[in-house]
Every structure is written in structure tokens, then in C-alpha cells.
């Protein structure tokens, strides 16, 4: 015998399910969504940081490669071994880039050596060594171009290093570059989620890590999936295990090196916020179950008492007693159910009278049907008139109107006959529509007809080609709507000839193609001019730097060797010569930076200027801890533009503010954003020396200075560089100031390269 569940138990279970299931469902869905959002956010943040570090590493390798090419060209012009030795020593001491420089003859023998000051051993240990089997020597001799070796452990410093080689006359100059700077970059990257930045060679070895002991041990990460994916050129975010702990890592490849940048964070750290919410959810679920159980047990007896009385009333009605005993007062729904029982009994008594009334209603309905028939006949007459008006409209329409059913034409108005070149409708009716559709348009026509028959809705206007009876091709615009022809599904199409318009569009496209070709020619000429300018800049840099280095080097040697015999005036004059040489070198660097800003290819992305401002403030305070300068950096200052160029612009403005507040005991520098005339402007202000507004038009010109060099050093290039960067972003820059009360420089950013040459707002 089947034992059915009681109403009391069912009520208790139902209350528990209604209370607990929604809480569990919402909690689990929220946890899953939040977990996915959090992992996506952390992955995207780490991937952005990895790309930034990759660009920084790529930039750090560009200077030594340019420098080794420069040394090769210098040594090519200088054939004397003694002079070459002096040149190598000067180059390695003046730049500090390389651990060692070797000059090899055409056979690969070492003929000249220069070692860094902290290098182990002496130059004599390497003279005469045979480097003829060195891969980069062979590559450079074969190609005659700059080459770079794979990563190896330097015998000079014991650190990971790479070699750069460049032609030097008939021989080759080889420089060893230590890669400890990669670990510095990793240590300073500072991921927001307390993660770690790792740089890995193309063979899976760690070459950059905040923990430098892992670099020295050449830790091998080649077995990790994230490393294999990165070496295959697939940038992205992965989850993997390291020493039994799950990690979330993002990987990108450094262009031109095959090296990888990995930004990783323990998965438990990344998911910590979700785990906290999950604990709260468990406590809330348990509390809900307990509360629902108590409420169900308390309410079960209250609900069941009136239900028992209701069951007794139902038994009386089943035995024909329609005098229902009133139910005890209970919930509104149960009271309504009792009233329904009483109404049912009353309804049975009154059924007979209702049937009589319905007979009378049927008689009235018959009369109404006669009236409706008369109205139907009138509507049919009006329909005939409407059809006649429609026929006249179609016959006189200037556009071609056709109807096709089951793939064949069944109607065509006079305009359609003219479009297809027919004399009578018989030349079209009954023929398949595909006979008049150009092959290029048949696929589109078939798809549109399929939609019309299946979805029974109009299709939008489109262009296609039809073939006239004489074989000529005509361009038309077509719109179709569903139609019924003799009880069968059909399509009514309206066609308008657009041949003349298409010919005009073709002429316009031809003119556009000619214009694009002219633009390409002008672009090629501009690119050639840029290449010539870059070559000229490099030549000027090399030709001017060499004598300046000689002046500075020999001045230092003269001071060291003859300083005891020189009078005080002579020492002062010698120091002025060296200071002038350094200023000239700085001026050359600034000019090259200004030229480079104008030539760099721009890339646009969302840039956090507040974060850049804080980094610049921290760098200045760490470099000059003796100064008392307070920075005020607004939060949330972002802009759309090239991150490298915008950093250069903001760095120049912060440098200026730092420099011109040098004589203030309590200096204050502020970076913020404001609204000026409905345009968002970013500004850098200070309470320093300020300037006279009468000379503001000279402020952004190269070499123009409003203060004496003895008071504030500089070359006058910084603000000119800011002007060019802002112009390339389509914005403008201007300044306001007062002597002794500080200055403020504003700039806006537009949407395209170029921009107005106006710096001072009018009005």
C-alpha cells in the first residue's frame, strides 16, 4: 500500500525549499561571476604590466646596439692600434654600458681590449685570443651587419650577459652587456596585486627576477605551460602549478629577442576577496535554513486548523447540503475558498433561470448575425473599389512593380515592361525570375526570397543587377514584401533603375583611387625625408659628441695631472671649459630628443597620468632627499594617447617645476585637471620663480630662456618638446605665471596627430 505524504510535511518541505533554494542559487551564481570577473581583471592588469615591461626591456637594449655600431664606425676610421685602444677605453668609461669591448681582426684574433673598472682580470689576459669560432663573429663577418648573441654567463662578472658585434673596418668590435638591469626592471615593476615580474630567455632560463639568486642559478622554467605558450608567440594569461601552489600568470614576448616577460601572482592571493565573500555566504545560508525551519514549524499548526474545517464543508457539499457551515476566521485565501463553496451552491440553484436567459440571448445573436452579413456585403463593395484604385496606382507608378509566385512572374506593370525592354506582358509572364537575374546577384536574390517565404516579413532595400530581354545589364534597387496570389504565397517586388547613379559612384571611386595614389606618393616622399633627417641627426650626434668627449676627457686628465701647477684662475678656466662641454653635450641630447619626439610612431591607449605623476614625484624626492618639496597629485587623471610621449611631456613639466622651485625653502608642486571653456585641461603648477607674462610667447620656442643660466640651468628645449608632443596629440599648450609667485602650464589632448600651433588661449 502506497503511503502518501501528509499536507503538514509537504508544507514544511515547501517552506524550506522556497527559503533556501533562491539563497543557494543566487550565492553560487554570484560567486561564479565574481570569481570569473576577478580572474579576468587580474589577468588583464598583469598582461598590461607585462607589455609595459617588455617595451622597457626592448628600449634598454636599443642603446647598446646603437652604441656598438657607433664604436665600429669610429674604429673603422682609426687604423692605429694605440689610438684604437684609447678610443675603446674612452668609450667604455664614458658610457658604462658594457663590461668589456674587444676589437678582433679579420681572422678573429683579439687585437685590442677595454674592460670596465670593476671587471676581473686585465686587458693583457685577452690579447691574442682566438674568437674566430664565436657565432656572432661569424655572423657579423658574413652579413656585415650588427648581430647579438644568445644569453650566457659572463666570465667577467658571473652574471647573465649578451654580446653585441658590429663591423669595424676589416675586423669586428664585440661588446659584452651584463643583464643585471633586467632584474632591476623586474624589481621596480611593482604589480598592483603583489605579484612577481620574471624575464625568461628563449631557452626557458630566468634572466630577470627580483630575487637575483634565481638568476645566478639560471633557474629553468622551460617545463611550465605558460613558458611554452609564450615561446610559441602566444601572449595571454594562464593558470599553472609551481612547487605545489597554483599561480595566475600573464606572458608576452619581447620583440626581436625571443625573451618572455611573465607577471605572476599566487591564485590564492588573487581570489582572496572571493573566498571572504564565500564564507559570509555560507553563514547566511545556514542562518536562512535555521530561520525557515522555525517559521515552518510555527506556521504549520496555524495553517492546518482552517484547512481541516474546509475539508468538512467539502464533504457536506458532496452530499447535497448546500448550506455551508461558516469557516473559522483564517487567512484571506482560505476565507475566499469558503466563499467559493457557498457561491457554487447558489450557482446550481440559479442554473435554470440562467438557461432561459441564454435562449433569449441566442435569439438576439441571430439578429446581430443578419446585420453583420449586410455589413460584409458593403465591405466587399468597398474592397472592389479599393482594388480598382490600387490597380490604377500600380499601372501609373514610375517604378517597376512585379509579382512572382512559385519562382515565376505572374504580374508586371508598364514600368516593369520598360525596365526589362518588353513590348507586352506576355514576354515576361510565366517565365522564371532567374532568367532575368544577373549571375552575380542570384545568391542574394535566392536568400531574400527564402526569407520572404519563410518569415513572411518584408526584406530591406538592396542593390542587384537584372538582365533585359536584349541582354543588357541594368543596376536596380529592389524592395520585396510578402503577397498572396490566388491563395498561394507570393512576393511583390518594386524595382528602381540606378544605372546612372552607379556610373557616377564608379567615377567617384576612380577619383578616390587617384587621390589615394597621390597620398601614397607624398607619404613615400615624407618617409624618405624623415630617413634623411634621422641620418643627419645621427651624424650630427656622432660628429659633435666625439670632440666634446675629447675636450671633457683631456680637461679631466689635465686637471688630474697638472692641477698642482695650475694657478687658481687656470683651474677656474679649465672647469668652465669642461662645464661648457657638458652643457653642449646636454644640448645635443635635448635636440636629438626633440627630433625623436617628432619622428616616433604614435600608438594610442588609455594612459593613467596620475600614476605617472606619482612615479616622477617619487623619483625626484629619492634623487634629491635634501630638498623639502611637497607634491599634490590628483587621482583619476587619465588621457587617450601615446604612453611614452605623454610620460616625456609630463616629465619635462615636473622637471621645470622642480628646477624653478630650487630656491624655495618650502616648495609645492601640483598635478591636476580642470575644465576650461568646456574642454578638459591637464596642468602642472608650482610656487617657484615664475616668469613675466610679457615674454610668454618665447616660452615654448627652442633655446628661449626667461632666466639666467647662472640662476637656473637648462637648454630651453624641454617646453619645446612638450609643445611638439601635445601638437601630435591634436591639443594645445599654454602657460600662466607671475614673477616670484610661480607658474602653471596647461595642455589639452585632441583625437588626431597634428593640432593648432596656438599656445595661448585667446580672450
Overall SS class: alpha+beta
* Beta strands, count: 23
Intertermini distance: 98 Å
Query: Could you list the spans in which at least 5 consecutive residues all have pLDDT below 50?
Result: 752-763
Helix fraction by DSSP (H/I, runs of at least 4): 40-55%
Largest sheet: 6 strands, antiparallel
**Tally of separate helices:** 17
Radius of gyration: 44 Å
3D shape: extended
Average the pLDDT over all residues and give the rounded result. 77
Could you please describe the fold and organization of this structure?
There is one protein chain. With 763 residues, this protein is α+β, with helices and mostly antiparallel strands. 51% of the residues lie in helices and 20% in strands. It has 17 helices and 23 strands. The strands form 5 sheets. Strands 1, 2, 3, 4, 5 and 6 form a 6-stranded antiparallel sheet that branches. A hairpin with a 2-residue loop joins strand 12 and strand 13 (408-412). Helix 1 packs antiparallel against helix 4. It is extended and about 140 Å long.
